[in-house]
Amino acid sequence: MIAIGCDHAAVNLKNAVKKHLEEKHVSFEDFGTDGTSCDYPDIAEKVCSAVCSGSAERGILLCGTGIGMSIAANKMKGIRAAVCNDGFSAEYTRKHNNANVLCMGERVIGTGLALELVDIFLETEFEGGRHQRRVDKITALENKSLGGI
Ligand code: RB5
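# D-ribose complex -> structure
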C-alpha cells in the first residue's frame, strides 16, 4: 500500500497521482487533504506514520514546492523523504538513499513529469551494499541528540 497526502496547494496533483495509481492497480490510502486548507506538517505526520508502522510500503507527499512536506517528513524517525523534480533524482534516491517518501510540488512540476517520477520511485529498488552503510549512518544520526538551535 502507498500512503499519499497533500496540502491545499497540491490537490489537483494528488488527484492525478491517485488516478494513475488506480489505473496501475497500485493500492493506496489517501490521508488528506480533500481540498480544505491545512498545515502540511499534519499531513506529513499521517502519511509518515503509515510508512513507519509498516502499513504503507512507501509514501507520496505533495505540496506547493514539495519542500515543506520533505522537511516535516524527515523529522520522523525512519523516514527518508526526497524532493524530486527529475527522473535521475527519483531513480537514485531509491538506489542510493533507500528513500521511502517521494515529495513533489504542484507549483513546480507538470503532471506528466510527476507521474513519471511516481513510476520510477515505486519501481526502483535500493542497491544496498556500500549504500546500506551510508543509510545506516543516517539512522545513527537520527538516534543522536544534536541539541536545539
Ligand atoms: C502553501 O501555501 C505552501 O506553503 C505549501 O504548499 C508548501 O509549498 C510549503 O513548503
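# post-check
Strands lie at 2-6, 28-30, 58-63, 81-83, 101-105.
The pocket of D-ribose is lined by residues 7, 9, 40, 63-65, 67-68 (CB under 6 Å).
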